[in-house]
Amino acid sequence: MSGTSGNNYPQRQHPSNLIDPFDDSVETSQSTDNLSVPQAAAIPSFRPYFSQSDNTSFDPYFNDSIEDDEEQVPLYSESAGLTRQITNMSAYSEANLPLTSGNISPTASVGVGEHTFMSSKTEMSSGDESPNGSGERIIHINSPTKNSQKFLHNRISTTKYNAFTFLPKFLYEQFSKYANMFFLFTACIQQIPFVSPTNPFTTLGTLIVVLAATACKEILEDYKRHRSDSEVNQRKCKYLDLSEETYVVKEWNRVNVGDIIRVESGEFFPADLILLSSSEPEGLCYIETSNLDGETNLKIKQAASETAHFTSPIETSRLAGYIKSETPNNSLYTYDGLLVMSTQSGQKRVPLDPTQLLLRGAQLRNTSWIYGIVVFTGHETKLMRNATLIVTMEVVKFQQALLINDDLDMYYEKTDTPALCRTSSLVEELGQIEYIFSDKTGTLTCNEMEFKQCSIAGMAYADQVEEARRARVVDGVEVGFHDFKQLKENIRNHPTGNVINEFLSLLSICHTVIPERKDDNPANIEYQASSPDEGALVKGASDLDYVFTTRRPKSVNVRINGADLEYEILNICEFNSTRKRMSTVVRGPDGKIKLYCKGADTVILERLSDDNPFVEQTLQHLEEYATEGLRTLCIAMREVSDEEYRVWSTVHEKAATTIVNRQEELDKAAEMIEKDLFLLGATAIEDKLQDGVPETIHTLQQAGIKIWVLTGDRQETAINIGLSCKLINEEMTLITVNEESHWETKEFLEKRIHSVKDGRTLTFALEKDIETTFLELATMCKAVICCRVSPLQKALVVKLVKRHLKAILLAIGDGANDVPMIQAAHVGVGISGLEGMQAARSADVSISQFRYLKKLLLVHGAWSYQRLSKLILYSFYKNITLYMTQFWYAFQNGFSGQVIYESWTITYYNVLFTVLPPIVMGVFDQYVSARMLDRYPQLYSLGQKSEFFNVKNFWGWALNAFFHSLILYVISIYVFQDGLVLTDGQLADHWFWGTALYTAVLATVLGKAALITDLWTKYTYIAIPGSFVFWIVFIFIYGMIAPRFNISEEYFGVIPNLFTSPIFYLFIVVVPVICLLRDYVWKYLKRMYYARTYHTIQEIQKFNIPDYRPRMEQFQKAIRKVRAVQRLRKSRGFAFSQNESGQEARLIRVYDTTISKPKG
């Protein structure tokens, strides 16, 4: 389901028994009692009901029944790792979460059933009940003392702990892990005298060290989240100081419900506000909601006419009354409220709907300032209710995260932004990703539109032209491009000069852009456009000396080569998704009436007259533009006689005033005049992709990763970007799913088991009885694009795949609207981009460019998975090898509890003598280089298939450890069973044997580490040979000194005899070689006769074998371009992005840029 953009809210068909939920005269409880089941079923919008036995509020995302200073605790948590355990503690299905909808009525009147639910305590958070118990919140205006309700503060918190909860939460989380519980139990047993033969602190000391290190890491990571929260909470905004009757600065976290806030252009809204007035005519303002729904097209909001005149602090401070508001919820596109204003003549009631609602996280654009009153704060804002913002951490290796942070290849110099791994517990999962869910705007694209090329009168122009592509005549036909400098010259002295003039005049006149001059520099014009495409076209015309300067209600002024010309705007035929075009009827300075029309090529070409000489050349240029991923429009015009216009304007005026099917009538009227057009040419705009996006997506697909794009943009735009970024290509069969009902969606999905899906269809596809069919179809596709998707739907799609597939999922986005999706995936990646830092703060890993995802996954991810797999397997191996020798000895000593090794030496085994090899392997080992992993992305499938860590590998390592321990024990028994005669005639005792066997075990496991290491660095030499040397030095010193202090008394007299015995040296050399001989032979046979793919790549890397694939890639690129042209010839209709709010024409009629705006 997708919410509609702007203010285009379809009207809901209400039942006959409607009431005003905010009318005090209505007996709500009586109406509720009389409500029958069929009537309740008729209500088309509803919220899921969560029963609660007491008076405590309940929210499906946060438990709000807490004190203000407490953190918001999610009702479910997850832990992750190579051996994953997922525990869902929530008592509801994720698929049953409420969906946002653009079809819910914005009016204050609602059905009885809906009002009854709004009044229920289950929908309210603490403090939301009004004194009369009706369930709505009462917000008094300019009267803080009357706001007796205890509303939630505006602070946000994404931290996991505070000073009071750290210890219990940390201990609970750590001892929820089976490993820690095992060691705790073992440590407790060791404290009982005469039960355990080992030292009481052998296990306990190690456990305390591990827990302390983990606690330090948790505190550090939580402190980073706390610091990020503080940055947001301490942002500045202006609020109305009633005593001074002016706006003063205060921090976001001090904003309260009922405050009147002033927000200026470019600033973000600190809370959910009701728009009171603005600097624009009739209380209009433009906002960008890319943080919320991913859309970069500006949305139009408008204050109620009763408050639009409050344009100064003094006037605003005199506003009195209260707001009856709905309770906090997560529906981004709905709002019901009532403003009751106290006036001299009595109370005036003003209904409030989403048109006046300004959401936290949205940004004010193209508007100097607005005044708004705060209705929701903090975690009760609609943005925060669309995000679960707690990430469960798990300790794996902190150092691997630091390597990601320090990678200069992922450092973006332009914004001085390095990569940042916030959650070190998930680094190994970066090497096992099977699905990527990505936002589009700001993630794949730069969020910038540029007017790059155009075709005018059959001639191609571009802003920059390489020498090899410059225009030239071949076989009597002109090919190539002219630059824009040549275009300016052609206006004056080329036969096509008149066509160029009309083309650029159309770009500067036929639009809904507002020109704005700054007080400090009136000559500098900024264009405020709700559509980024329109803004780029008007800016492009301005750069070519056709400067749009002034807009009045009935005319516009354009400065053409220094001459200021006025054009009368007679009519505007607006864009909508059906028409795919926009037309403007103007009367020029010469008195002639002209129709200017721009739109998709499919709709323009079929409306051309017979006499059009430039069609063929323009179509060739369109195909070239489209294959380059540019967004194209066709440009056409015709002259209209005065008589024809007089007749048509009568028809158009009648259509504009009709009540029934007004839009259809207006479309029919437009059809009457949009005919016999003359094709002037075409434009090409680049929705600029981030650097390296197509190559990254192509490489990730080669690595076996499926990519789904979930975007708030409309379908045509999403498909166009999908083609340009190589997500989809001409070889694929494109299945587009656009259904209007549950049953139509179900029927279609069952028939077509490829896909482009819109938000409305997605609503039905996520319902219980269809979701598995939808998932089956989607997973069969190589790529999926879901468009017009709300933030909550993004999360639900991710959770659907997560719930049904045994695959590790990654979500990547750059705006607050992507936070739910990021948090729903196993691994969340945030891009610190133009849409702010919300996604980056909430993600496990933050990067500054999408292209860095390739190295993050294919290199760091693959390395981390392989390293940690080796680390875990080796750690089990080395412990089994040591402790199984004790197990074999138990059979010989009759299970008496006697041990082979001294207790503290056993403790030091993992803490000192074998701690470095797994750390060094886990941090520095590389089974192939970064260059090879990038060149051969297919190697990534080793992680997806769990080739390095699986049950078979685990038992293989375990059996090998059993084998080594048995060999070590049996040979040692053979050598030492009758006592070894020493040089002084004495016999070696039990501890001599134990120390010699311990040394041999250590030599064996360190030798095994050397055998499995792929990359030797200086740290490897320190870790493996160095550890053995350290043991020899340590035991010599420790064994001589410790017994004198009554510590490790077993070593008394052992060391001098041990280090003077030739048998000891022979034993610790020969026995490890015997153990590892089998391992070496097996490694040789496997590489020579059962080679794996990475073995081959290792050989290519070692001998630097050249790669001849680039030649083939160039050939394939040429083939793809030919197929792209063939596909575009079959299916036309290039991208055209434009708002379709249905009120553009009316809104631009109220603007007069010659009149100065109020300063506020």
Automatic annotation (TrEMBL):
Looking at the record, the residues that make up the P-type ATPase N-terminal domain are: 139-204
Q: Which domain of life is it from?
A: Eukaryota
Q: What would you give as a GO molecular function for this chain, any one? A: ATP binding
**Sequence ranges assigned to domain P-type ATPase C-terminal in this UniProt record:** 840-1090
Q: Enumerate the active-site residues.
A: D439 (4-aspartylphosphate intermediate)
Q: Which Gene Ontology cellular component annotation is one that this UniProt entry carries?
A: trans-Golgi network
Descriptive protein name: Phospholipid-transporting ATPase
InterPro entries per UniProt: ATPase_P-typ_cyto_dom_N, ATPase_P-typ_P_site, ATPase_P-typ_TM_dom_sf, HAD-like_sf, HAD_sf, P-type_ATPase_IV, P-type_ATPase_N, P_typ_ATPase
Source organism (scientific name): Dentiscutata erythropus
